[in-house]
Specification:
The protein is built from nine helices and no strands. It has 295 residues and is mainly alpha-helical.
Length: 295
């Protein structure tokens, strides 16, 4: 929108710095209104992006919770079957010397004691991330959770999630050869000594139940961290949405300044009305700065 001041009206404008500023008011107000409109649109776009990202992360969190529930259920089934066997038949410690093939120490420890392979401990969670998880777990008010999440940096949360996934991968890699060896042993026992097969089955159930429980805990950690990302992005979306609305109000103020300045030219009352337009523009700029830095 371009506004040109008629030549016959220029003489009525004081030939001072303030008068020149007032003369440029319509143009300045138009630029400010355009700038605020762009900021409002940008904030709304960022809000929509954060909402979309939160939806994707919620889907991933749902998958991890499904894995968690499946692992816990499988572990419970293994323990229930083990309890039934121990209550109905005479179970003896597994005689590893009678196994059809030699086994490594890790496989023997898994079968005899239900021990899991030793893997490096997971990296300690950042204090702010841990506090946010505890706030959610204890079902604190949303405002308090949002405040706690505000102290968690996105990079820190992403690193914690990557570390949790890496720890799960390391555990899977450590248990894979044990699982394969146990499966091969089970196949080789088919049709053989029934008492040995029975004792081997009990030992396998004990180990498998412990493995499923450990995998469930790993999935739970990943799901919890993904839930933090979901909440953080939703909070960010709300913030950008609010900022967009406030920038829009600032744009309306600047447009009001343009309208007032235009009426001033038409009504030959430029000094007073243009001063009002300038005040509206200054208020719009101040409001935009406040929203940008503090909201």
């Amino acid at each position: 929108m371009k506004i040109k001041i008629p030549d016959e009206l220029k003489a009525d404008v004081p030939q001072t710095i303030w008068g020149k500023i007032l003369s440029a008011t319509p143009v300045v107000m138009t630029v400010i209104a355009t700038l605020l409109a762009g900021l409002a649109s940008s904030e709304m776009t960022r809000a929509q992006y954060d909402r979309s990202l939160a939806a994707q992360q919620q889907s991933k969190a749902g998958d991890q919770w499904s894995y968690f529930q499946a692992k816990r259920l499988r572990g419970a089934l293994q323990r229930n079957t083990l309890d039934i066997l121990q209550a109905t038949i005479d179970v003896q410690p597994l005689a590893t010397a009678r196994l059809p093939a030699p086994a490594s120490e890790s496989v023997l420890a898994a079968l005899q004691k239900g021990e899991l392979p030793v893997v490096p401990a997971a990296a300690a969670l950042d204090a702010n991330v841990k506090a946010a998880l505890e706030a959610i777990e204890s079902q604190k008010p949303e405002t308090e959770i949002a405040t706690q999440l505000g102290t968690v940096e996105e990079k820190t949360l992403a690193e914690a999630l990557a570390a949790a996934k890496g720890h799960a991968t390391v555990f899977d890699a450590a248990t894979k050869p044990i699982n394969q060896t146990i499966d091969q042993m089970e196949k080789s026992l088919v049709g053989g000594d029934k008492s040995l097969t029975r004792d081997f089955t009990v030992a396998r159930l004990r180990y498998t139940a412990a493995r499923y429980d450990a995998e469930a805990r790993l999935n739970q950690t990943i799901a919890n961290l993904l839930e933090l990302q979901v909440r953080k992005n939703n909070i960010s979306a709300e913030r950008h949405h609010e900022r967009s609305g406030r920038f829009f109000y600032g744009m309306l103020g600047a447009q009001a300044g343009v309208i007032i300045a235009t009426f001033a030219i038409a009504a030959r009352k430029r000094n007073l009305l243009w001063s009002l337009a300038a005040a509206a523009g200054a208020a719009a700029v101040s409001f935009a700065v406040y929203v940008y830095w503090f909201v």
